Automatic annotation (TrEMBL):
<dbReference type="InterPro" id="IPR034741">
    <property type="entry name" value="Terpene_cyclase-like_1_C"/>
</dbReference>
<dbReference type="InterPro" id="IPR008930">
    <property type="entry name" value="Terpenoid_cyclase/PrenylTrfase"/>
</dbReference>
<dbReference type="GO" id="GO:0016102">
    <property type="term" value="P:diterpenoid biosynthetic process"/>
</dbReference>
<dbReference type="GO" id="GO:0010333">
    <property type="term" value="F:terpene synthase activity"/>
</dbReference>
<keyword id="KW-0479">Metal-binding</keyword>
<comment type="pathway">
    <text>Secondary metabolite biosynthesis; terpenoid biosynthesis.</text>
</comment>
<keyword id="KW-0456">Lyase</keyword>
<dbReference type="InterPro" id="IPR005630">
    <property type="entry name" value="Terpene_synthase_metal-bd"/>
</dbReference>
<dbReference type="InterPro" id="IPR036965">
    <property type="entry name" value="Terpene_synth_N_sf"/>
</dbReference>
<dbReference type="InterPro" id="IPR001906">
    <property type="entry name" value="Terpene_synth_N"/>
</dbReference>
<dbReference type="Pfam" id="PF03936">
    <property type="entry name" value="Terpene_synth_C"/>
</dbReference>
<dbReference type="Pfam" id="PF01397">
    <property type="entry name" value="Terpene_synth"/>
</dbReference>
<protein>
    <submittedName>
        <fullName>(3S,6E)-nerolidol synthase 1</fullName>
    </submittedName>
</protein>
<feature type="domain" description="Terpene synthase N-terminal">
    <location>
        <begin position="66"/>
        <end position="215"/>
    </location>
</feature>
<dbReference type="GO" id="GO:0000287">
    <property type="term" value="F:magnesium ion binding"/>
</dbReference>
<dbReference type="InterPro" id="IPR044814">
    <property type="entry name" value="Terpene_cyclase_plant_C1"/>
</dbReference>
<dbReference type="InterPro" id="IPR008949">
    <property type="entry name" value="Isoprenoid_synthase_dom_sf"/>
</dbReference>
Length: 576
């Protein structure tokens, strides 16, 4: 259950779960008189600092409505004019790149789409034999990356022109073009299945870039830019979490002119404005969570609405999607709660009855179950009805059947893992991963997101999403596979038992290959044409981009990197 696992790996990690003592006295549990010493503490399961309402209200940025100031509006107009007037073969691509890295692309969506559409229409012109890609590696790789990111399929074969006469190896003289290599490395992350040249380009560019850092002497800024490129490639990183580092530097922007200062000032203002918006959203979510009373009714379960909100804010980065971020956090919270019921609280008989009740969606069926299960199901029923009502009011479509089915499917997957644990069975790797796609919680969350966005909802698209298409399963696979690096990594255990004599290193290498394959599938799914709206596709990508941050545990099972990002994003404004 990666999105909600109690550690940095899924709940099948037997040695860890054996330390979670279940509470076997029904009378104690039904009275909520739970011996907290015999169960895992919430801090053990997710150690993420929680900040109270006072810290939100007293921080420097006021809780004002999202809007552009006069100066920022003028900056936006200036950049829009710059994009409209630039030669699309030259500076415009660099401006778009800077806009995206600074996390303010939502302000220029129409301008960006117009430029890239024209670039796509004339792509052959830039890649014919009259143009030497070797002499313009940075621009060629940047054009390729931006077009792929926008959903346009352009052939990766253009990079074969960078190879020697035999076509076996990339030309060694490319090592002199550091800027070009950095962009080649960035472009390589947009590969799809069968594009070996991009796999080779990634290895080639990363090796040369790594070696180049030892030859830069005192040019620490340059070395830092290369290191950041290698560790945080644009396509697999959320600009929302990295843009702040670029507000006072030009080292990441090739051939930047005065426009970069205008963009940085606009990005600073946007950061502070969006931060205020996020604070208001956090207060809404905290109020909802407190009013619902789940933390009191289920003291064994996780109580971290801010952590859950990170998924929503990282998934939906456009400020205009405020309502959707708030609403999406609610089903995410129930994924965590139900996961805790399965992992920490219920015995197998209770979990089976609970799952059957969810499948029938029968409130009366849980009356004989422990108090926490009754409370959870009733609250889940209320939430599902509320979301269904909102979607129906806004879109004229009642999603209740799809949502209930998704919760049932999720609980079925949770129950499968509970049975594996209860019986001591170590499943086959493919069986484990197939079930893990569902128990990750990703399909259920993305289904809610699809309806909350309210875009392109038809019988055909609903049927398409209900069947968990590749865009959803590949996103879930990235999360499921990425989340296997615990001390007792459960997939590692399955892999080594199934392949007698294999090592931990081989199992981890297999995980790395699976993640790479899942990214290629996700990249392909995001190319046009696709029946799903672009906002939904981008959200799926963002979930995959969030995964490394959400599972960057230290030896104490803490998430220091995530905590630092939360502090920076929600509590530390940018001086203007």
């Amino acid at each position: 259950m990666p999105i909600v696992s109690t550690t940095s790996h899924v709940s099948l990690s037997y040695s860890l779960r054996e330390s979670y003592q279940k509470i076997e006295n029904p009378s104690l549990r039904n009275n909520n008189n739970i011996d907290l010493v015999t169960k895992p503490s919430t801090s053990q399961k997710w150690s993420v600092a929680q900040y109270d309402h006072n810290s939100l209200l007293s921080s420097s940025t006021p809780l004002e409505s999202y809007s552009l100031s006069k100066n920022s509006y003028n900056n936006k107009i200036a950049i829009s004019k710059l994009l409209a007037g630039e030669d699309p073969s030259d500076q415009a691509l660099k401006v778009i790149d800077a806009i995206q890295r600074l996390g303010i692309d939502y302000l220029f969506q129409e301008e960006i789409e117009k430029i890239l559409r024209n670039q796509f229409m004339s792509f052959d012109h830039y890649t014919d034999n009259k143009h030497n890609i070797e002499d313009h590696l940075h621009d060629a790789a940047l054009r390729f990356r931006l077009l792929r990111q926008q959903g346009y399929f352009v052939p990766a074969g253009i990079f074969n022109k960078l190879k020697d006469k035999k076509g076996n190896n990339f030309k060694t003289e490319l090592g002199k073009d550091i800027n070009g290599l950095m962009e080649l490395y960035e472009a390589s992350h947009l590969s799809i299945e069968g594009e070996d040249v991009l796999d080779e380009a990634k290895i080639f560019s990363s090796q040369l870039l790594t070696a180049s850092m030892t030859c830069l002497g005192d040019d620490h800024r340059r070395a830092r830019a290369i290191a950041n490129t290698l560790e945080y490639p644009c396509h697999k990183t959320l600009a929302k979490f990295t843009a702040k580092n670029l507000f006072g530097t030009t080292s990441h922007f090739e051939s930047a002119n005065g426009w970069i200062n205008v963009l940085q000032e606009l990005a600073k203002y946007e950061f502070n404005q969006v931060q205020s918006l996020h604070k208001r959203e956090i207060l809404q979510i905290s109020q909802w969570w407190r009013d619902m009373g789940m933390a009191k009714e289920l003291p064994f379960a996780r109580d971290q609405p801010l952590k859950w909100y990170i998924w929503s804010t990282g998934c939906l980065t456009d400020p205009s999607l405020s309502q959707q971020r708030v609403e999406l956090t609610k089903p995410i919270s129930f994924v965590y709660i139900i996961d805790d019921i399965f992992d920490v609280y219920g015995n197998l008989d209770e979990l089976t009855l609970f799952t059957e009740a969810i499948n029938r969606w029968d409130i009366t069926a849980v009356e004989k179950l422990p108090h926490c299960m009754k409370i959870c199901f009733k609250a889940l029923d209320n939430l599902t009805n509320e979301i269904s009502h909102k979607v129906y009011q806004e879109c004229g479509w009642n999603p209740s059947h799809s949502l209930r089915k998704a919760w049932a499917t999720l609980c079925d997957a949770f129950l499968v893992e509970a049975k594996w644990f209860a019986s001591g069975q170590v499943p086959k790797t493919e069986e484990y991963l197939r079930n893990g796609v569902v128990s990750s919680g990703v399909p259920m969350v993305l289904l809610h997101l699809f309806f909350l966005l309210g875009q392109s909802i038809t019988q055909d698209t609903v049927d398409f999403v209900d069947k968990m298409p590749g865009i959803i399963t590949s996103t879930a696979a990235i999360l499921n596979d990425e989340n296997q690096e615990g001390h007792d990594g459960s997939y590692v255990e399955c892999y080594m038992k199934e392949r007698q004599g294999s090592s931990i290193e081989e199992a981890r290498q297999n995980i790395t290959e699976r993640i790479s394959d899942a990214w290629k599938c996700l990249n392909k799914e995001c190319l046009s044409p696709n029946p799903l709206p672009a906002t939904f596709l981008k959200a799926c990508l963002n979930v995959a981009r969030l995964v490394p941050l959400m599972y960057s545990y230290d030896d104490n099972q803490h998430l220091p990197s995530l905590e630092q990002h939360m502090k920076s994003m929600f509590y530390e404004s940018v001086p203007m």
